[in-house]
Amino acid sequence: AIEQLESSLVLFFTGQERSASEILAEHEKKSQKDDPIMIQNLHQIKEIGLETRKQLEKGNIDKLGELFQVHWETKKKRSANISYPFIDECYEVARKNGAVGGKLIGAGGGGFLMFYCNNNDKPRVIAAMQKMGLRWERFRFDFDGAKILVNT
């Protein structure tokens, strides 16, 4: 199951970097004020996380793409700074080329996009994202913890 999951995920660097601390500070401010929309959003994200865990434990790897999609749509409602037109365009192009779902990794605003794809669609998604100027990052799951890869 781990191998199937790993082979179904593709990761891209968007080339865009934004300050995660600004986005997270906005979230914290809204949470401290008990902003009902923020609180509801956080609860929805938690439920999506619990459902993701449940589906993975059952071995329903293909549900992950659908849950990524729901997570992404929910997360974007949290702040106008989570995404921006270029990221939204990349996301839509990936979906049109076969990605089942995806999400921006981290607080938002740039960085990395991860998509879940059926293996037959993976080459199309990779080609489409590279055409958009994103860099495909090969990765593997690691269960040994952090390692120094480059020491300068």
Please render the helix and strand layout as text.
Blueprint: H1 2-8, E1 9-13, H2 20-32, H3 36-58, H4 63-76, H5 85-96, E2 99-105, E3 112-117, H6 122-131, E4 135-137
Antiparallel strand pairs: 1-3, 1-4, 2-3
Helix pairs in contact: 3-4, 5-6
Tags for this model:
alpha+beta; Alpha-Beta Plaits; 6 helices; GHMP_Kinase-Related; transferase
Can you describe what's shown?
This protein is of the alpha+beta class and 152 residues long. The protein has one domain (2-137): 2-Layer Sandwich (Alpha-Beta Plaits). 52% of the residues lie in helices and 14% in strands. The protein has six helices and four strands, in the order αβααααββαβ. It has helices spanning 2-8, 20-32, 36-58, 63-76, 85-96, 122-131; strands at 9-13, 99-105, 112-117, 135-137. A four-stranded antiparallel sheet has the order 2-3-1-4. The chain is globular. The model has no long low-confidence stretch (mean pLDDT 85).
What is this entry, summarized?
It is globular, with a radius of gyration of 16 Å. The protein has a four-stranded antiparallel beta sheet with strand order 2-3-1-4. It has helices at 2-8, 20-32, 36-58, 63-76, 85-96, 122-131, and strands spanning 9-13, 99-105, 112-117, 135-137.
